[in-house]
Every structure is written in C-alpha cells, then in structure tokens.
Design brief:
Blueprint lengths: L11 H5 L2 E6 L5 H9 L3 E4 L8 E5 L9 E4 L11 H10 L10 E7 L3 H5 L2 H5 L5 E6 L10 E2 L1 H8 L3 E3 L8 H10 L17 H14 L3 E2 L6 H10 L5 H41 L4 H18 L2 H17 L1 H14 L8 H6 L4 H7 L6 H10 L9 H11 L5 H29 L21 H35 E2 L7 E2 L6 H8 L1 H4 L6 H9 L6 H9 L7 H14 L12 H13 L4 H11 L2 H28 L4
Parallel strand pairs: 1-4, 1-5, 5-6, 6-8
Antiparallel strand pairs: 2-3, 3-4, 7-9, 10-11
Helix pairs in contact: 10-11, 10-12, 11-19, 12-19, 15-26, 16-18, 17-25, 19-26, 20-22, 22-23, 25-27, 26-27
C-alpha cells in the first residue's frame, strides 16, 4: 500500500539514481502509467511554499533499471493558471529548489497527437533526455485512426514507445529506452524546435506529422463516445442527468459512510473507555482517553467519507464523465463567479466541509478555487444535523415530524441559495478586478474504469487527508478538553474542575454580555465554545451544563429537551429557549464557521493563516450579527 512520506531521508543508492518526471496534459494517462512503473508503491510529497501534492516513487525492481519517478500535475501550456500547473512548469524548467529532473517521460494521447505534442516544446527545450510514452492506443480503432510509432520517432528524433499502463504493456521497453537516452546531448530532438506560441506550435506539429506520414486522420468521430455524449450532453436532459449523478454521489458520501463512521467511532470510544478503566480517578488517563484518543477519533471518523468521495470522483474522472459534468454546469456557476468544477465540492460540503475543501483541488484556477473554498462553510454539513434536530425539536410540538422535516429541507435549500448569493457578491465586489478564468478542457473518450488503479489512486488521495489534517485537529480537540475539564483553584492555579467552574465556563460567563442580545445565557455559551471542536458537541455540552445524566442517547435527548423547555435565566422565571432565541441559534449555526477542523484544513490547503482566520472571523461574525438581528426583530414583532 502507499506509504506516507518517510521522516528520514531515502537510501544513499536512491539519491544517486536519476530522477525522471512524468509530464503531459491532463487526461493523458500519467497517473495510470505511474502506477504501472512503480507497482503502486508511491507516496505523496509536499514541498515548502506550495500546497500541491506530488506522487513520488521508484521503478519496480523487476524492470531492472532503477529510477526515481515523480508524477507532475497535468499542464495545458507554459502559461500556468493554477498552482498545480505552475509547480509542474517550475520543475520542468529547472526553477524548483528541490526537484531537479534528469530526464522526462512525455505522456501523449495517441488519439490527439497534435494537441498533446504542441505542449512538448516546453519539455524539448530543457536539454534533458526525453522519451514519449504513447497511450490510448486501444482507442485508435474506434475512430479508424492509426499511428506509426517508428515513423513518429523518426520525425521527432526521440524514442516513441506505445504503452498500455492499465495492463503494463510497453512499460519495460519504455524504461529501457529511457536508460539508453541517458547522456544524450540533444535530448529533446525535434521537439526543441517547436515554437512556444500555441497556434504556431499546433501548425508545426501538424507539418511534422504530415511530412513524416506518421498517422492517418480520423474519418469519423468515436462512435461510442458520440452516442453517449448525445445523451449525457443533451440540451435539455444533460443537466438533469448530471444533477442525478451528483445527488447519488452526495447520497453515497452521506449514507454509505455512516456505518463505517459509526464503527470507527465505536472503536475509538471503546479504546477510550478501556484506557479510563485502568484508573478511573486518573486525570492523566482521562486526558489520554478523551483528549488524545478522542482527538484522533475526530480525524479518523471522517475517513470513510474521504474514501468514498475520492473513490467516486476518481471513478467519474477515469470513465471520462467528470469533464462533461463540469462543462454542463460551468455557465450557471460562472454567472456567480464560480467554476464548473465547483459544484462537486459544494455538494460534498453537505456531508463534511473537510473533504469538500480537498475536492476543490480539482478546480484549476486559483480565483475560482479560493471562491469555492470561501463559501463552503455555508453548506449545512452532517455535523449540524444533531444541532438542528435538537433545536427544531425544542421549537416545534412533539408530534410535528412533518414540520421538522420541512424545516430541515428548507435549511438545506437555503444553504445552496445563500452560498450562491455570497459567491456572486464576493466575485462582484472583491474580485471584480481579476478576470474570470475560462473552462478549457478536452472531453476524453469514455473508457471502462480499471478498478485496481482507481483503488490505488483513492488510497493515495485519502491517506493524504490523515497526514495533512490529523495533527491540527487532534491538538485543537486536546486543548478544548483541557479548557472544559480544568479551572482555577484556591491552593493551586490550575486544578481539575467540573464543567460549571472550568475555564470554558469562565469564558462562557465572560461572553455573557455578547450572549444576552441572542437571548441566551452563559450555559449556551459553553456549548457554543465546545462546538468549535465539532458542531455536534453542542448537544452533549448542553446535556452536561443542564445536568442531564443518561448513558442512553435517546433518553438523554428526551431529558435534555425537557430541561431546555423549562430552563430559565438564573433568579428569574424568564425562559431561555423561546421561539426567538431558538431561531436565533439556528441562524447562528447556519452561518458561523464553528469548526476548527475546517479552519485547520483550509489553512493547509491555502497555505495561509490570514485567509483561514479571515474566513473564521467573517462567518462567525456574520452568524452572530444575523442571530442577534433575528432575535431582536422577532421580539419587536411580539414573538417571545
């Protein structure tokens, strides 16, 4: 299986082996070829100053020739509009501080030679040995095309090796040709003479192919792809079909992951109980069980969602459908300043903002990627469900299930509408000076997915989640546990304390002046503070501060509802949880970015604390302001 980046350096022999970079345009088959070359034994690597993940590995021993292999992000041109393409170009041109390629494998789609080879001049001009890996050879028959690799190699003056990465055919010949090219003075051959200008490059490549009689052109379009596109890209049916596909993807993330999440949660809960059972009175073991193990569990519990998200996205991408979906929704999303690929992160945000932030990597332009990540906190994630369920149950009559269901549906629909509004306003007033990017992509031919490859890529992408987000989430959880379980004491500065006298409670009382306009007191403030570890913690925090003691979740919830409905401000008969204050809390949870885990992941993805902090302050401040406005308006209208 794929391993995380090792803490120690690679073996000395690996340091002396040549570094070979796989380069090419998107959808050319680079990652599949990387799997074939390394046997799937690659790891993700990150470098200072960038947030892009690269795949690094070594050629399989049975190939005989040891190479260090790096799979660079796909590049359309040297004018790189995204961090991924900028990183790839910096490596190719030798500007990167750490990755210094000794040779290149140029991965080219045989069905689109002109388009893929016009980029090759950037590689050919570097003076490094180049070998062309010709992929998609099995698709030539669909369009009655043919390519002669020997004539193409003669025309370009570089080796051209037909490969099928999904079966491994041609991989050994590719590495052998690369070894034979080591030390070549004119490593790029005729590729170095192709102009840098895209239009001139396209014409020059066409001349080379015609003069060399390297291929016969298509006499008809790919029949299979054409028939499917007539259906999925239909003027009227295309968008509904795409919405059905994405709703199914969302349902899989939301529902299929739940049993695995429950199993992981139960496993970490049992581990924590076992640790506490060793010495029930030990505060250290309680911290290890609830703060450390619980913090790790908070990370691991989302792993099934991550796996399912990346599995389905890789499946759609490998089949060729994801590019069509992005083209379908690009126009309506572009009106709001977003990108066609923004819809998948927005939809997956209903499950959890953390995998949604990772899904935003598929958006090539930094402008639209930033805007998409900016509005993701407005998606009503699954962690809000327990909070909404509790507040709606406290607001509505006990037997009004249909009203609660309607209200919950309205919340989810409103999150999409308001997120679109915020995106449009942000793009209009804060990004108006930056021109929106165009959706430029090729529509690859449909192919039957290779499950082994998809599973390997899914694991590589998903394991990066634990490596990147695990530590900050665990640290935040541990700190919040300490605040909720320790407080001031007479003889010592810090001592174990119940929730009512903890540092968290003290902070809640300090926030009392700010909480009063929302119609709540410090006890609700403790819940709001605790919810920054995870929104659903608000429910258990309310059970603690309102003294609801039950091991059964259902009994605890009923007891908590009874306590909430009868709770009053200290020394008065005035109810805390009224229709106005409950609606104010719903508004607050709707808008506020009340999840430090999301903040940590956003910071790592954007490599910027200021942007992550601004997002936290903006949405939390907006949630508070709108909650206060809602409560005060309802009271002015006579709603208690």
């Amino acid at each position: 299986m794929n391993q995380p980046v090792p803490a120690v350096g690679p073996p000395a022999r690996a340091l002396t082996d040549p570094t070979v970079c796989l380069v090419g345009m998107p959808n050319s088959g680079k990652t599949t070829l990387m799997n074939a070359l390394t046997g799937g034994h690659f790891h993700t690597a990150n470098y200072p100053g960038v947030t892009v993940t690269l795949l690094r590995g070594r050629s399989k021993p049975e190939h005989g020739v040891p190479f260090n292999l790096i799979d660079l992000p796909g590049v359309h041109s040297a004018v790189a509009p995204s961090p991924e393409e900028e990183l790839a170009c910096s490596v190719i041109e030798g500007r990167h501080r750490e990755v210094k390629p000794d040779a290149f494998i140029l991965v080219v789609d045989a069905t689109q030679l002109e388009r893929h080879l016009k980029f090759a001049s950037l590689v050919g001009r570097q003076g490094r040995p180049v070998v062309i890996a010709l992929t998609m050879m099995d698709l030539l028959g669909r369009t009655r095309q043919s390519v002669d690799p020997a004539r193409l190699a003669s025309a370009l003056a570089v080796p051209v090796i037909p490969v099928d990465p999904r079966t491994g055919r041609g991989v050994q010949e590719l590495l052998t040709a690369l070894e034979q090219r080591r030390g070549a003075l004119n490593g790029g051959g005729t590729l170095a003479e192709i102009p840098a200008d895209p239009v001139a490059a396209y014409e020059r490549v066409g001349d080379l192919l015609r003069c060399g009689n390297c291929m016969t052109r298509a006499t008809e379009v790919d029949a299979v792809t054409a028939r499917l596109d007539n259906f999925v890209l239909h003027r009227y049916l295309g968008l509904p079909i795409f919405l059905i596909v994405l709703v199914s993807l969302f349902a899989a993330i939301f529902w299929c992951a739940q049993p695995f999440m429950d199993l992981i949660d139960a496993g970490f809960g049992a581990a924590g109980d076992r640790v506490k059972g060793m010495a029930p009175d030990s505060i250290l073991l309680r911290f290890l069980a609830e703060g450390v193990i619980g913090g790790v569990g908070a990370v691991a519990v989302f792993f099934p969602q991550i796996m399912i998200l990346f599995f389905l996205m890789t499946l759609l991408e490998d089949s060729g459908y994801l590019a069509r979906g992005a083209a379908l929704v690009d126009r309506p999303l572009a009106a709001m300043g977003l990108h066609g690929r923004s819809f998948v992160p927005m939809l997956s945000g209903f499950a959890c903002a953390i995998p949604a932030v990772f899904a935003a990597r598929a958006i090539p332009a930094r402008r639209e990627r930033l805007l998409t990540i900016w509005i993701l906190p407005l998606m009503s994630c699954s962690a809000r469900l327990p909070v909404y369920a509790l507040l709606l149950a406290a607001l509505l009559p006990a037997r009004a299930a249909w009203q609660a269901g309607f209200s919950l549906a309205a919340i989810y629909i409103a999150s999409l509408l308001i997120a679109s509004l915020v995106a449009g306003l942000t793009a209009r007033f804060l990004m108006s000076s930056r021109p929106p990017s165009l959706l430029a992509m090729e529509l690859p031919a449909y192919r039957v997915p290779r499950w082994r490859t998809i599973l390997k890529v899914t694991w590589a992408r998903s394991s990066a989640y634990l490596a990147r987000a695990g530590l900050p989430i665990m640290v935040v959880s541990a700190v919040l546990w300490l605040l909720a379980n320790f407080g001031h004491a007479e003889k010592t500065i810090v001592a174990p304390a119940p929730m009512e006298s903890s540092f968290a409670a003290g902070l809640g009382r300090a926030l009392q002046p700010a909480l009063e306009p929302m119609g709540v007191d410090w006890r609700v403030g403790v819940g709001l503070i605790s919810a920054f570890a995870a929104r659903e913690v608000f429910v258990s925090s309310m059970a603690i501060v309102f003294h609801v003691d039950s091991d059964d979740e259902g009994t605890q919830r009923q007891g908590l509802l009874a306590q909430l409905r009868g709770a009053t401000f200290p020394g008065t008969a005035r109810l805390i949880f009224t229709p106005a204050s409950i609606l104010g809390l719903i508004v607050f949870f709707f808008f506020s970015l009340q999840c430090f885990s999301t903040v940590a992941v956003v910071r790592r993805e954007l490599n910027s604390w200021p942007l992550a902090g601004l997002q936290l302050l903006f949405y939390t401040g907006l949630g508070y302001a709108l909650a206060v406005a809602s409560v005060q308006t309802l009271r002015a209208l006579g709603v208690a």
